[in-house]
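Recall from the previous lesson that a structure prediction takes nothing but the amino acid sequence as input. Here we apply that procedure to Protein white from Henosepilachna vigintioctopunctata. The sequence below is the only information supplied.
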Amino acid sequence: MRKNSDDHFRFKRNMTGVRCNIERNSDQQMSNEELKRRQCTWVVQNDFVERIPVDKQILFSWCNINLYKDDSNPGSSSTDREKILPQEKQILANVSGNANPGELLVIMGPSGAGKTTLLNCMTFRNLKNFRVSGLICINNLPVRQIQLASQSAYVQQDDIFIEYLTVREHLIFQSLVKMESHFSYDERLDRVERVMKELSLKKCEHCSIGLPGIKKSISGGERKRLALASEFLTNPSLLFCDEPTTGLDSFMALNVVQMLKGLAESGRTVIATLHQPSSELFQLFDKICLIADGRTAFLGTTTEASSFFSELHLPCSKNFNPADHYIQLLSIIPEKEKECERIVNGVCYAFAKSVLGMKISKAAQEVEVTIKLSALLKINKTEY
Ligand SMILES: Nc1ncnc2c1ncn2[C@@H]1O[C@H](COP(=O)(O)OP(=O)(O)O)[C@@H](O)[C@H]1O
Ligand SMILES: [Mg+2]
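The prediction returns the following tokens.
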């Protein structure tokens, strides 16, 4: 009987821990088509991934983020920052955390929990009609939007491309727009070449980007990688991605997440929100941040998550996708609101009181104390 196709391969990491090699198991046979498909997608060309030098690596943290939507008066003043006014809806409540260089941190949670809003707070985006308080820090120092933008890249969920351009033309155009003015044209072309190799786009460099489903186009996975490539021209140390796998089949999603993991392993700090990751994807995450009802329900490694929920007598059963388990556990189901809220409150409270939760809040408090002292000395403070 034919075994599961994955049994035919052994995935091996090389010295840098980045490259994925596929080795054919000699006593097993697999169709040429399947082998070709897997090799095309799986031999991730991470040999070319540029390492980020230690002095450019980023410890990214967010401290006590509170975000309110004022329904009666959008764009209300930011006085009384910590007070909830009667007409306001709190969307994020005291959310803190951090992501280290070399780590792929994935923000997960039920729909409407506040994942995108948190990512927006982290990147100072789309916050016009909200009242926000808290700090965003790089290496424990608060930053403003402009400082963050110069060191990071943000890959949006739906990227807009000019359909008539080829992949190569698009990247050259982006290099002219995005790279700093001191780069010569040849240096920009070199960078484009390098980024195409890093993100496995050489194969389709002369293909038109097109419009999915309307005009012959590159594949969904290539489109996502092109969005990443556009942001990579500036070689950022910190990368944010909102739902990078949405609209991709499971195999392509795996390919994109494998790539994000490779980029993290090269010294970058990678933060992504993911909707319903498969168990295969879940295993690739270094850390997960679970958001429920605008609060942190958990932040730590996948192994720590497993122990945390087991200790709460809410373990994930064997052969069940842990991501699905956590998301279901933290969802507010219509007509069962009270019961679900009780579980969510319990989990959030338990995490806040856990060793991991206390460590995060202590780090946030330390940053705040430093800032208060700095403010006294008239040094920068974060402003939304
Ligand atoms: N512009 C907005 N105005 C009012 N409420 C909003 C706005 N954006 C988001 N929200 C609310 O904030 C909550 C979190 O939304 P979001 O961050 O998009 O969730 P997620 O990304 O986890 O699905 C939801 O209850 C949503 O209705
Ligand atoms: Mg979202």
